[in-house]
Amino acid sequence: MDSDQLRAQVAEIEKSGRLGKSRAYAKLLNFLMERSIEGPRPKEIEIAIEVFGRDASFDVSQDALVRVYVHKLRKKLRDYYDHGAGEFDFHLEIPRGSYQLDMVPARLPAADGLWYAKNRYLVPLLAGVVAVLVFSLWTRGTPLENEPVEGRVRAAQSFIWADILADSRPLIVVLGDLFVFSEINEYSEEVREIRDFGINSEADLKMYLAQNPDLEQRYRSYGVSFLPPNVALSLRMIMPVLLTSRRDTGTKVISQLTAGDIESHNIIYIGLLSSLGSMPALRDRVLRDSRFEAHTSYEVLIDREGGDIFAGEGDVGLEYSDRYLDYVLVSRIGDAGEGRILAITAIRDIGLGKVVEALTDPDKLVALQNQARALGIDATDSLEVLYEIAGISIDTLEAMPRFITAISPVKVENPAQVNPAQGSSQ
Fold first, then answer.
1. Is the pLDDT of residue 136 over 60?
2. Is the dihedral of CA 25, 62, 211, 199 positive or negative?
3. Which residues make beta-bridge pairs with 272?
4. CB burial class (10 A; 0-12, 13-18, 19+) of residue 236?
5. Does residue 325 carry a pLDDT above 80?
6. What angle do CA 58, 198, 322 make, to 5 degrees?
7. What is the Cα–Cα distance from 381 to 26, expressed in whole angstroms?
8. Which of 119, 179, 226, 409 is surrounded by the fewest CB atoms within 10 Å?
9. CA-CA distance, 282 to 298, in Å (whole number)?
10. Nearest to 327 by CA among 241, 277, 385, 413
11. What share of the chain is helix, strand, coil (3-state, %, to 5)?
12. Can you say whether residue 322 is alpha, beta or left, with left for phi > 0 and alpha for psi between -120 and 50 degrees?
């Protein structure tokens, strides 16, 4: 490894501003650079002590601090090269499962405008786009025309759907819309809409502006949100299953959901983890007894038991082949007394669609139930399934259950790894 080239490129990355205002990422990048040059490869506890100021008693098995920062630095490096970096013969990468910098041959740049590839991005909020989406959903044939009756009934009678559809409590399908705020150019008065994964509600924006008062005149909220494409498509996919119950079913976006709705209704949630985070009452019900917790960025799930992190990686549909990796948590919780919740919660949009396909396929539902039974999980137990979605293109993506876990109101029971995969935790 050419140390001069490595140092020069790290300096360029810092100068670009892509690491953000926090010095933690620059400090971490420089630490990994020095270890890549001088060795040896650092351990997680060394990073915690040298970069984040922890002491030797810091328990890396219980605190995912280092893993989360390394994961986010990996994404920042990818973002740097995909959007606006200069021309380099090599790129810096942090391989999954390690804490070192590698120099790899430069790849082709990513196409702009992929919302899942950026932390903050411009959202084109055009009424015509919404109209086209709605039209396309309902003019490709209604669900009743497109889905075999027998398949719909078999899916509805599966252990994932049966209890919530048979329950007499009113049912609401909650769609995870994403909060958007406006940035106003004080000189030209131009307005653009901004999506920031760290700001998921009016309350988040108010808190952010309270901490950054110099931005109060620049950032405004006009009550705008948008729906990720696969959330809308997922609603269409589950409609044939819901219609078998012949009951009235309401639909709301999560930004309009109230705590009263959650208390009085059964809930089917379809959306991203970041959207779930905007409604604490629902988020807490879904994650309260879960094996997994959400990082505050809502881009990462953390295993409370092993400390592993699960986060999306890679892109699809670009000019280069890249391994896409995503995780979706399916939670079936509650009972007739407390109210039932079926939450299909994705880290990224594309993974959501693939898992909803699996959850509306009667044969895949039978296979999932057989796996649960083999682990001693009864069809009436509250449970959660962590799906891993992997592939190198839209056509090759597959959703496979990674963990199936029974849940009790007190603790998580029967944790079992169904389909171990390589390198999930970094």
1. no
2. positive
3. 346
4. middle
5. yes
6. 85
7. 46
8. 409
9. 14
10. 385
11. 40, 25, 35
12. beta
83's tokens: 């959007």
Vertex 312 angle, CA 301 and 424, to 5°: 70
Q: Compute CA distances 242 → 157, 357, 394, whole Å.
A: 11, 14, 27
CB burial of residue 384 (10 Å; 0-12, 13-18, 19+): buried
CA angle 361, 337, 247 (to 5 degrees): 45
> CB 266: neighbour CB atoms within 10 A?
22
Decide the pairing of beta strands 191-196 and 90-93.
unpaired
What number is the average pLDDT over the span 50-62? Answer: 86
312 and 345 in contact (C-beta within 8 Å)? no
Q: What is the reported pLDDT for 393?
A: 77
The owner of tokens 């009934």 is 153
Can you tell me the distance from the alpha carbon of 197 to that of 47, in angstroms, rounded to the nearest whole number?
A: 26
Distance from the first to the final alpha carbon of the chain: 23
State the DSSP code for 343.
E
Residue type, 3: S
Per DSSP, 64 falls in state: -
Q: Which domains does the chain have, with CATH numbers?
A: 3-109 (1.10.10), 141-177+228-417 (no CATH)
Does the pLDDT value for residue 86 go beyond 80?
no
Q: Is the pLDDT of residue 298 over 90?
A: no
Ranges 95-99, 149-153, 366-370: which has the least confidence: 95-99
Distances (CA, A) of 371 to 280, 358, 364, 374: 32, 14, 11, 5
* pLDDT score of 411 more than 70: no
How remote is the C-alpha of 254 from its chain's centroid?
Answer: 16
Enter the tokens of residue 125: 């909020």
Q: Are 199 and 238 in contact (CB under 8 A)?
A: no
Dihedral angle over CA of 126, 128, 131, 136, nearest 10? -110
Cβ pair 406, 382 in contact under 8 A: yes
Q: Using the predicted structure, report yes or no on whether residue 400 has a pLDDT greater than 50.
A: yes
Secondary structure of residue 41 in the 3-state scheme: coil
Give this prediction's pTM.
0.67
AA identity, residue 391: G
